[in-house]
Specification:
The complex is a heterodimer of chains A (about 140) and B (about 450).
Chain A lengths: L1 H29 L16 H14 L7 E5 L5 H14 L4 E4 L3 H6 L2 E5 L8 E7 L2 E6 L3
Parallel strand pairs in A: 1-2, 1-3
Antiparallel strand pairs in A: 3-5, 4-5
Chain B lengths: L2 H17 L3 H4 L6 H26 L5 H18 L15 H19 L5 H17 L4 H5 L13 H13 L4 H4 L1 H20 L4 H21 L7 H10 L1 H5 L4 H17 L3 H20 L4 H24 L16 H14 L12 H4 L7 H20 L5 H6 L2 H20 L19
Helix pairs in contact in B: 1-3, 1-8, 3-10, 3-14, 3-16, 5-10, 5-11, 6-8, 10-11, 10-12, 10-21, 11-21, 12-14, 12-21, 14-15, 14-16, 15-16, 15-19, 19-21
Classes of the chains: A alpha/beta (about 140), B mainly alpha (about 450).
């Protein structure tokens, strides 16, 4: 009898935990339009990822598929820069997306996408303004 | 229903149908209907993976019509040349309140999953991007994986999950990440079906079966939703261990060899730690066979080991050929990392809210080595824990705490459903017997 009671209590505890997670997920989903989070906590369908997706969708119109693209974003915590880069790569699967800090980028990248930032560098020239960013072409001799 | 969601629902059904041709080898007469279809699904997924691997080796691009043609041909060949499976008895009509709660938890998880709200970060960082890249390339794009900067997408991981994503996208003619989350819901469903079978075949009483299934569904569902796990491969590992419960909770037999073989092959195709997990499953099954029969059985060894070998060898060949192994995977064991690892594991146990205190269940297999009945599955789980520990002690990571904190909650998740099944079988409340009646036949609940 004691074992049944213990198992019943455990299941009831798990049910409470489950309901709490459902409640939090629902609240998060309802409030996703107002969600402000660092890149380490980005989720699909939130303003931050939608902004990045919009920026890259526009960039895609001016870059041939298969191009190597260097991606730049605001120079804050390395973890944040890294995560933005990974999200950018996810949104551009048909391209080779490198970080601007990657040594290979200088040799391979034909374009630079700057998200929420601008780049002043004599080796690149602006192609067009993007939603929340800029697209540049790498000058080749 | 949109086309992508339909494709995500259709592919597992087709794989199950394809796998059902293996029924004569894969299903024991006592196996319940849901568990049989779990095994058929795993078998079908392994066949899909091998088929895609063959096409890659032959340099033939994946095309939905070609894949459909191969699938139909294999199904007809199976129908013509493979024996029919054993007849089954019992029905689902005997489902009780535990199944009702489990279904509710699964439904809630599924609804969240297909909104994309609980999509796992690793779907973005590697599983999803690989899936879309393979979809665009009509094959596993090894050149892409081998590029120096793509270390971030774990290029050396086995590819079954992105392959499934790519094939669904090929069927739907577009890559719809939200629809793909349905596959995780399916892995959850199959995990529950396996846990239910494990409890039944383990001889748990009716109350234990009902409460146990509800408990496992609620614990896994809470973690799955709260920790945002949809789209990742950890569910596949949890499924593997749960699916291995029925054959490892009963004495070894011919069908059990095949079941372990297919489950191990699925593990090896799914995730990096699935490869050692496959080896542990096979070794334990071989060990049981050798212990029981007092002699090495070549046929039994082949039944359990061959499917995983057929999966692992091509993967290994590709990984070596394209230099995909990452140096950060493992190095020399450094025991100086042990205290930091232990502290970080305790921190995860203490602070990962979506676990609601259930994460320590991942360590139950250490105790479940004691009861004879649960010893084989517990041994597999303990070996997987030991492998996780080996990785923690050997990976040359600069920030050991961050390394452990960033993944132990998930690695523990792989173990929890099977650990709970074992614990309930070993220590759960006994069947309540009424005077003058015998316990209800468990087959009625299959």
């Amino acid at each position: 009898m004691l074992k049944r009671l213990a198992l019943g209590l455990l299941t009831a505890w798990a049910a409470l935990g489950f309901l709490q997670e459902v409640n939090e997920a629902l609240a998060g989903w309802d409030g996703r339009a107002r969600k402000v989070a660092g890149p380490w906590a980005w989720r699909m369908h939130t303003p931050a990822t939608d902004d990045l997706a919009r920026c890259l969708r526009a960039a895609r119109e001016s870059m041939p598929a298969g191009s190597a693209v260097a991606f730049a974003s605001p120079d804050d915590a390395p973890e944040a820069v890294f995560r933005r880069w990974r999200w950018a790569a996810y949104f551009l699967p048909e391209y080779d997306v490198l970080q601007t800090s990657d040594p290979s980028a200088a040799q391979l990248a034909r374009y630079v996408v700057a998200f929420q930032t601008e780049i002043q560098d004599p080796r690149i020239e602006p192609v067009r303004r993007l939603p929340n960013g800029w697209l540049y072409r790498v000058k080749r001799p | 229903m949109n086309g992508a969601l339909l494709a995500a629902a259709l592919l597992p059904a087709l794989l199950g149908l394809l796998g059902s041709r293996l029924a004569a080898r894969l299903a024991a007469p006592e196996d319940g209907l849901l568990y049989r279809w779990t095994l058929y699904g795993l078998g079908g997924a392994v066949v899909l993976h091998l088929g895609l691997t063959l096409l890659d080796f032959a340099g033939i691009p994946w095309h939905p019509l070609l894949l459909a043609g191969i699938g139909i041909a294999l199904y007809i060949l199976g129908l013509r040349f493979l024996p029919r499976g054993p007849e089954r008895s019992g029905s689902l009509a005997a489902a009780g309140w535990g199944e009702g709660i489990a279904l509710s938890a699964l439904t809630a998880f599924t609804l969240f999953a297909v909104t994309g709200w609980i999509t796992f970060g690793d779907f973005v960082f590697h599983w999803g991007i690989k899936g879309e890249r393979f979809y665009l390339a009509r094959g596993v794009d090894y050149e892409y994986l081998a590029r120096g900067w793509n270390w971030a997408i774990h290029p050396d991981y086995p590819n079954l999950l992105p392959e499934i994503y790519a094939v669904i996208a090929l069927m739907a003619r577009r890559f719809d990440p939200d629809a793909l989350m349905l596959t995780t819901a399916l892995f959850f469903a199959l995990t529950l079906a396996s846990a239910r079978e494990g409890l039944r075949r383990g001889g748990a009483g009716r109350f234990t079966r009902q409460a146990g299934l509800a408990l496992i569904a609620l614990v896994a569902g809470a973690f799955g939703i709260g920790y945002t796990t949809a789209g990742g491969a950890d569910w596949m590992m949890a499924l593997v261990l749960a699916a291995a419960a029925p054959p490892l909770l009963r004495p070894p037999d011919r069908v059990g060899d095949f079941q372990i073989g297919v489950i191990a092959a699925f593990a090896a195709a799914s995730k990096m730690e699935g490869v050692p997990l496959a080896a542990f499953l096979i070794l334990v099954q071989w060990g049981r066979r050798a212990w029981r029969e007092r002699r090495p059985g070549f046929a039994a060894a082949l039944r359990a080991g061959l499917p995983a070998a057929v999966v692992v060898l091509p993967w290994l060949g590709r990984v070596i050929h394209h230099h995909l192994f990452l140096g950060s995977n493992a190095g020399r064991i450094d025991l100086a990392r042990a205290p930091g690892t232990a502290r970080a594991v305790l921190e995860v146990i203490r602070t990962t809210d979506p676990w609601h205190g259930f994460l320590p269940a991942a360590f139950l297999p250490l105790l479940l080595l004691l009861p004879r009945r649960t010893r084989p599955l517990a041994a597999v789980a303990v070996l997987l824990l030991a492998f996780d520990l080996y990785v923690y002690l050997s990976s040359p990571m600069a920030d050991q705490r961050y390394f452990v904190v960033s993944n132990f909650a998930r690695l523990g998740f792989q173990l929890v459903p099977a650990s709970l099944v074992m614990a309930l079988v070993a220590w759960g409340p006994p069947e309540m017997k009424r005077a003058g009646t015998s316990p209800a036949p468990t087959a009625a609940l299959d």
